[in-house]
């Protein structure tokens, strides 16, 4: 068994697609109409056959509340691995990404947290 798709709730699929592809550099794998919304997945450019990230509309009231509470409590919804966190932080900051936590060493890892502009906090980590 392996993970093939993981999802995050987003407030606006178009805005999320732009942020995750243009700002973060993920590659769009699927963009399929599903009625009112779309099945939009992205993958890492380094692992295009790897786990897909689904940009899930937060239409359900429970999804909206879950997303809002995590954001307000400063809890990241997911974690992305990076090779050089200081370089990634610099590049994303130059693109206007707002970090809520600068790169911080915690034991064997260094992590940082940013706002994805779609209702989520995302953690990046260098192991």
Q: Classify the beta-strand content into a percent band.
A: 35-45%
Order of helices and strands: EHEEEHEHEEE
CATH architecture: Roll
In the residues, how many domains can be counted? 1
What is the spatial order of strands in the main beta sheet? 1-4-3-2
General shape: globular
Give me the CATH superfamily. 2,3-Dihydroxybiphenyl 1,2-Dioxygenase, domain 1
Characterization of the model:
With 127 residues, the chain is α/β, with parallel strands linked by helices. The protein contains 3 helices and 8 strands; from the N terminus they run E-H-E-E-E-H-E-H-E-E-E. The chain has a 4-stranded mixed beta sheet with strand order 1-4-3-2. It has a 4-stranded mixed beta sheet with strand order 5-8-7-6.
Topology:
Blueprint: E1 5-10, H1 13-23, E2 27-34, E3 37-43, E4 52-57, H2 61-72, E5 78-81, H3 85-94, E6 99-106, E7 109-115, E8 121-126
Parallel strand pairs: 1-4, 5-8
Antiparallel strand pairs: 2-3, 3-4, 6-7, 7-8
